[in-house]
Amino acid sequence: MPSADRKKSARLLSSYCNRLYSQGLVGSMEGNLSLKLSPDTILITPTGINKASVSGSDIIEISADGKTLSGKHRPSTEYRLHLAIYKIRPDIRAICHAHPIYATSFAVAGKPLDKVILPEVAAAIGLIPVSEFGIPGSGDLAIKVARLAKDFNSVLIRNHGVVTVGDSLEQAFNRMELTERYAQIYFLATIIGDAAAWPKKILKLLAGFDTISKQTAKLKSKRGN
User: Fold this and answer.
1) Which residues are within 8 A (CB) of 8 and not within 5 positions of it... i.e. 6 or more apart?
2) Containing H/E element for 196?
3) Distant-in-sequence, close-in-space partners of 142: CB < 8 Å, separation ≥ 6
4) CATH topology classification for 3-224
5) Which residues, at least 6 apart from 176, have a Cβ–Cβ distance to it below 8 Å?
6) Which residues lie across from 173 on neighbouring strands?
7) How far is 3 from 46, CA to CA, in rounded Å?
8) Per the count of CB atoms within 10 A, which of 23, 40, 44, 199 is most buried?
9) Sheet bearing 32-38, strands edge to edge
10) Nearest-CA neighbor of 87 among 28, 36, 12?
11) Are strands 60-63 and 161-166 parallel, antiparallel or unpaired?
């Protein structure tokens, strides 16, 4: 990729870091984002820098096997997670990992967001499962989350956070924002009374129903193993 285009992509990536922080989806040095430039190169955020202050010059370029190609910082310690997901999802170009309070609380409780209560979530994301435990930054966790990300666009990482994917940074970010809103509404609805799921006969008419049906089958299969 020409240098000018790379710089533009790096600035774009840093702007979404700033948005993650301003939206309260991360705090301090939490979270990481990446953007696939080509099958062999990926831009990723640095480790140890507050997302509120990340700039385009802080972004690192790495290869598909994790080697640093350019950049003045070390890449995010979660780079293995990003690489594993890109490998299993060739259709995506961006990944967002954050620690939004409500969705992460569901991850800590080991409770998936797998009840269709909002049509927007059904259409844009689908069901949201919870991964198994894994050490942050490890290859083991990367594999566990990637296996779920193969069939799901948002995954709760057990006792850790959330990862979303998309064909653009905007889509990955929007899915993160929507995952958190879903978790907030789900939580508040259970306090008020009940988080009622859409009736099946109406659910069939919603956009995203085919995806949800496939995801439901996948979850039942995993629970049966």
Assistant:
1) none
2) none
3) 78, 80, 81, 83, 84, 85, 134
4) L-fuculose-1-phosphate Aldolase (3.40.225)
5) 20, 25, 96, 98, 100, 154, 162, 164
6) none
7) 19
8) 44
9) 68-70, 60-63, 41-44, 32-38, 94-98, 161-166, 154-157
10) 36
11) unpaired
Q: Residue 24 has which token pair? A: 């309260």
Angle at 15 between CA 9 and CA 21, to 5 degrees: 145
**CB-CB contact of 162 with 82 (8 Å):** no
Domain ranges of the chain: 3-224
Predicted confidence (pLDDT) per residue in 59-113, tens digit = 999 999 999 999 999 999 999 999 999 999 999 999 999 999 999 999 999 999 9
**Distance, CA of 105 to CA of 174 (rounded, Å):** 19
**Residue 123, token pair as written in the block:** 């259409």
How far apart are alpha carbons 94 and 43 in whole angstroms? Answer: 9
Condensed to tens digits (0 to 9), the pLDDT of residues 127-140 reads 999 999 999 999 99
Amino acid letter for position 179: T
Helices 3-22 and 169-192: crossing angle in degrees, nearest 10, is: 10
Alpha-carbon distance of 178 to 223, in angstroms, equals 26
Q: To which residue do tokens 């967001």 refer?
A: 113
pLDDT of amino acid 1: 53
- Give Cα separations from 190 to 128, 184, 187, 219 (angstroms): 18, 10, 5, 23
**d(C-alpha 143, C-alpha 60), whole Å:** 23
Phi and psi torsions of 107, nearest 5°: -65, -40
Residue with tokens 């997901």: 85
